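Ticket #4471: structure export looks truncated?
Reporter: QA, pipeline team
Priority: medium

Steps to reproduce: submit the single chain below to the structure queue and open the exported record.
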Amino acid sequence: MSKEDYFPIELIRNSPLNYKWNEDIAIKLYYVDNLRLFNAINLSSFRMKMALGALITDLIICRLSPFCDTSDAQKRTDAAWAAVIDPLYVFSLKIELSTGNFDDREPILGTLESCLKLLDSIYTSYNKGDIYLADPIMCQAWLARHISPNKKVFDNWLKDTLRISAKYFPREQEYDKSTEKFDYSNEIPVSPYFFIKKRERRFEDNIKDINLFLSNLEPINNPYLRSPNEMIKHGFVGIPYKYGFE
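Actual output as written to the record:
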């Protein structure tokens, strides 16, 4: 499937990267405070929030892919999508900035590394069950908006995506602010195919879609994914890289 099946063409076409970038902008984007966006993200289930983080990361990678090598970034995103199904699929998403900071001289590399650092923050919060998971996802969305060639199209896409996500995978429980942790183990996972535009969304297709996605993963060629044996050693219950089977 083409990325155009997921994203408006205006957001991913090969248009010039004319956004401003420096260390101050990168740091500002890493600490976004937008209560309206936070609340909109927080309407979705915990697993769906992780899916939104992976989806927005995918959008940023699509935007940057004509201008730099994003093959490693795509492997990280594949692992992030697998984490929606079970966080044990992920070996690690940690990334060290190549220059030790958000390099002013390398706006494309700086943007990509900022994106991947936020993805690691999203996964870390998700893996821990941090009830403030919406925070790093909000920052990733603001980064995607910053580099978007058409902010109006981006805003409409994000609004529609958040609305549909909350409709089909709503948050059904209040979070415990005393512990700041949430057990999402009983929530329904979601596959990347849920976000295909103009697709009929049926829960009966969910297991099939998740297994199709898992069958296309190659942990032997992706350093961010655990092997089946490693997953079992870390306590995975069931058959690795299959869903809904005992």
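Status: closed, not a bug. The export was complete when the record was re-opened. Leaving a note from the reviewer for reference: The radius of gyration is 17 Å.
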